[in-house]
Design goal:
The chain is α/β, with parallel strands linked by helices. It is 45% helix and 16% strand. The protein is built from five helices and four strands. It has a four-stranded parallel beta sheet. Helix 3 links the parallel strand 2 and strand 3. The longest helix is centred in the N-terminal third of the chain and has 18 residues. The model has no long low-confidence stretch (mean pLDDT 96).
């Protein structure tokens, strides 16, 4: 991984230029090792969303351990893309509801693991606001 200082010097300027030219921008932050760059990424004015992937061997995005990151994202006025896949669909629904209760529905996008049409319909019904 690149150090936070080197990231700000060598990566951030290019990302800022790219985001400024795009109609819609999303940055994929992948795993706990990348969290050191979250503040730099969230400082990009034209960045619209952060896609969080917790990484192999980590709890999925529904885990409360990632709420401090989600707090930063929401405080920065960015949208958030969260992957939830551990356990059964009823567990995904409860974890997603907890996130919605904390952050509301605006700017939250969930990605669930593949499931049956019936389970997908139940997730949609359960998260309907």
């Amino acid at each position: 991984m690149i150090s936070p200082g080197a990231y700000r010097e060598f990566v951030l300027p290019g990302l800022m230029r790219e985001c400024a030219r795009l109609d819609h921008s999303l940055y994929h932050l992948d795993g706990p090792g990348a969290l050191v760059h979250a503040d730099a990424v969230l400082s990009i004015p034209s960045l619209q969303a952060l896609q969080w992937t917790s990484g192999a061997g980590q709890n999925d995005g529904g885990s409360e351990e990632w709420f401090p990151l989600y707090d930063k994202v929401m405080d920065a006025g960015k949208s958030l893309w969260i992957q939830i896949y551990e356990g059964k669909p009823y567990v995904w629904l409860e974890r997603a509801k907890k996130i919605v209760r904390r952050y509301g529905t605006r700017g939250i996008y969930f990605v669930f693991a593949p499931c049956s049409v019936e389970d997908a319909a139940e997730l949609a019904r359960g998260l309907k606001v």
